[in-house]
Fold this sequence. Notes:
Layout: H1 8-20, E1 28-30, H2 34-43, E2 50-54, H3 62-70, E3 74-78, H4 92-101, H5 105-115, E4 119-121, H6 127-134, H7 143-150, H8 165-177
Parallel strand pairs: 1-2, 2-3, 3-4
Helix pairs in contact: 4-5
Amino acid sequence: xxxxxxxxxxxxxxxxxxxxxxxxxxxxxxxxxxxxxxxxxxxxxxxxxxxxxxxxxxxxxxxxxxxxxxxxxxxxxxxxxxxxxxxxxxxxxxxxxxxxxxxxxxxxxxxxxxxxxxxxxxxxxxxxxxxxxxxxxxxxxxxxxxxxxxxxxxxxxxxxxxxxxxxxxxxxxxxxxxxx
Length: 180
């Protein structure tokens, strides 16, 4: 007998019950586009607190960030360092800004997200990098630096282009070898 996948609205109603019972303080969604979020909000009792979507200096998601802000939903960035793709950590603009603040490029990118009101989610198993990833609150990026970083946006996802087994395997191997 073939198993049917449970519709996300059914799963959400279960999360709403947990929220209303006080068993959880917040519930959220993952990778909802603006059109899907608008549809979702129309039919649900409890508004998601967060939408976790891919966001980094090369894929900045300005329109999504603005829409979520209007809806009072926190944007959470997965893959904030582009999983090491496209040599983000060697980007000349980011390196120059990092040098000016005596920070790493990773710290610049993470602070850039926070300064935009976006919560970054970074994966690391390295205690030194974990500490470094938290040490991002003792400086501010200037308007000029924010603009220079804004100009790095390619409006291209490095995640959605992985539509073959080989592409997924290559991405996962790169991501596992690169853990900030």
